[in-house]
């Protein structure tokens, strides 16, 4: 019993067949030796892989609202980016920022990062958690007619459950903020907060002779994207995964790292090709798609492989 | 059934009584509401808390042997620290280094750190793991008549088991190297590698079009000691622990952080007062002992509370 009935939103098509064949092999149902449970590590990108990232990453909406508050409170900020774009309601400034990034120009990424870091400077980790939690649960997606907390892809949540039922330990490995996702990761994905890996600012601990406080500092610790993803996976788990799921160029290193000389592996790429039910785009996934074709990664088409998206 | 029979090496004295009363309260056996399983996070320092750290931290022996290899291969190194001390067999240079550190002078700590970082520059994480694993399993403690892999304190291993049996998730939070402890943490403590937190050098990921490699870089990522311990616990777990165990000044911040407004907590300090069976010292634990007395932390005397040490 490999619990395939959990994959109800997956059509009986090549992607599902590859997933099921892989899991059967891992648990030894195909007659080969089972992979030890402790080695069954599966890692998933978040934005665009587990939940929707269009028209903009959900965390960017969170940040823009905070930047707007800051610009309202401190008018001088409106002369500099990213507060200038927020004040002018210039969403294109944000919308094309990742296009620049993928083209190798990180000027605006750095300006945005500076804004994000300033936005939470000095906030305690508990207060950040409250803000993130209220935002994700209390804000509606601009076009999908649902709250952000309902924007997880149902087939991917089923896949996480299916892997868990087969002895896998699942991790989120997000380019977005680790602490942004933690308050909702269990409710949305069944993944506990200690298994969320993601970008982080630096923190400082201040003793008070009582319980102490950890606060955000205005400097990035690391950005968990591209070649940093395998490093962060190693730091957290001490293992190479045997399954990785992603959807963009920032996931290529993580998927490449998911390789063993003598253990089966699965690399899964979510393809956004469903303009009716979600969005259709390959911008930012060009290298990932080339690699998927070359190395025989499994591609999951939202349109063809999923009976439902949400 | 709170599994108290697991604590066979603990005398029926105040430390054991405090531990048992705390765990009974956490699981709700005293009639109060149980603490949710996901909040039962327990963190333990490693050197001097879970295994022996005298006459020198075990990882220091590992490093010194590597530095000696380097000095033999590259004679110029013998003119600079820490290779100079190693070549002159000047163990006092290392032995008094932490005394300087606790007195606020980190000159030699920095020199040693530079040596450690150079010692593993460019080594893959897999190769480092092999070296560490062979060393800990294959090297004998200089005076205790046992291999390093047998230098864990039996009462503390029992405590880890007892906590696990009561729904706790246990973590090692070591000032020493995370990747140094990982290959033996399950065999020695029953703690899987993903629950080892410790100091780390920075890593870089190199793509090779196949499986990629993570290698050590000659720069520290962070040193997991003092106020950095709560930060690293937060980064890994996203929670405040409810139990912390330590033995030195470097653990004070972590023990202080183990405090909740409405959840029971236990702070445990291992006191090295048993020159016959292990070692007797309070150097490096002065502030911790003051704080234990002031804040009513539980002190475990190796001499009075433990029937066996190893």
TrEMBL record, chains A, B:
Record keywords: Hydrolase
Pfam families: HAD
Keyword set includes Transport: no
InterPro entries referenced in this protein's UniProt entry, alphabetically: HAD-like_sf, HAD_sf
MF-aspect GO terms: hydrolase activity
Protein name: Haloacid dehalogenase-like hydrolase
């Amino acid at each position: 019993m490999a619990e395939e009935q959990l994959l109800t939103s997956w059509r009986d098509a090549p992607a599902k067949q590859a997933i099921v064949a892989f899991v059967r092999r891992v648990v030894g149902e195909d007659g080969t030796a089972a992979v030890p449970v402790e080695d069954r590590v599966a890692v998933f990108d978040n934005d665009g892989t587990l939940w929707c990232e269009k028209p903009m990453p959900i965390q960017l909406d969170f940040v823009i609202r905070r930047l707007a508050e800051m610009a309202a409170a401190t008018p001088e900020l409106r002369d500099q980016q990213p507060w200038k774009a927020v004040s002018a309601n210039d969403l294109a400034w944000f919308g094309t920022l990742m296009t620049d990034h993928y083209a190798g120009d990180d000027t605006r990424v750095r300006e945005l990062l500076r804004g994000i870091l300033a936005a939470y400077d000095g906030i305690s980790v508990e207060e950040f958690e409250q803000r993130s939690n209220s935002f994700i649960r209390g804000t509606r997606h601009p076009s999908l007619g649902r709250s952000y907390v309902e924007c997880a892809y149902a087939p991917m949540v089923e896949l996480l459950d299916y892997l868990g039922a087969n002895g896998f330990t699942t991790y989120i490995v997000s380019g977005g903020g680790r602490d942004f996702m933690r308050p909702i990761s269990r409710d949305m994905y069944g993944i506990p907060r200690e298994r969320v890996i993601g970008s982080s600012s630096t923190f400082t601990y201040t003793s008070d002779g009582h319980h102490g406080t950890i606060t955000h500092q205005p400097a990035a610790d690391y950005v968990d994207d591209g070649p940093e993803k395998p490093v962060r996976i190693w730091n957290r788990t001490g293992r190479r995964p045997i399954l990785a799921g992603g959807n963009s160029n920032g996931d290529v290193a993580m998927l490449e790292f998911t390789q063993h000389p003598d253990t089966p592996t699965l690399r899964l790429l979510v393809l956004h090709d469903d303009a009716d039910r979600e969005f259709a785009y390959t911008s930012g996934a060009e290298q990932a798609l080339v690699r998927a074709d070359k190395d025989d990664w499994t591609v999951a088409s939202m349109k063809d492989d999923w009976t439902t998206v949400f």
